[in-house]
Design goal:
single chain, GIY-YIG endonuclease, 61% helix, 9 helices, 12% strand, globular, 222 residues, 3-stranded antiparallel β-sheet
Length: 222
Amino acid sequence: MSAWVIYSLIDPRDQQPRYIGSSIRLRKRILEHVADALRLCANDPQTAKDKWIRSLAASGMKPSSSILEEGSGDSACMAAEKRWISHFRNLGIALTNSTKGGEGVIPTDTRRRLAEIARQRCSTPEGRAQMAARGARNRGKAKSPEAIAHTAAANRGKKRTGEKLANVQRVMRENSLRRTPEAEARRIAAVRTALTGIPRTPEVRQRMSTTIAARRGARRSS
């Protein structure tokens, strides 16, 4: 059973942790974080962590690290990572983690293969065109209740900025206008099925009503 560590990447400018991760080879993993971020081209998709590391590099700096916890066992590792991410976020620290943690320790060679595949797909006009075509084919298709429930569970509890919310609402309006009435009806039915039994606060109900009214107005004006 492999021993693991939960670690933080620290911003040298204010000594605040900006990323929490888990690894079975800490030094090598930290080097990979920096190398992967600096290898990206300007037009490549970048995570918040990538942008932060690149901003440090532009000033001639790199993140430092600190070990937060050590242990063994996959389930204990996932629980510890989630606990530390939650701890720092509850303190109001703006971590660059894109998830709540707990995905497990992915072997380094697997991480490298996945990253290389993603880079290759985005590095050529043909690859970007294929990704755009795949998105166009899926646009307007109703997701299954299971897929909707999975997405909702992954996003539940995440805080969104005003700009992020505005972008989400804009994309939802555009997608709604592209769907046929039949596709829109299937989508609504799937969402209702997925949300059955989930309690909603008055604030959530009000936001839903406002969003639905805006969509209907957009469809009537189109």
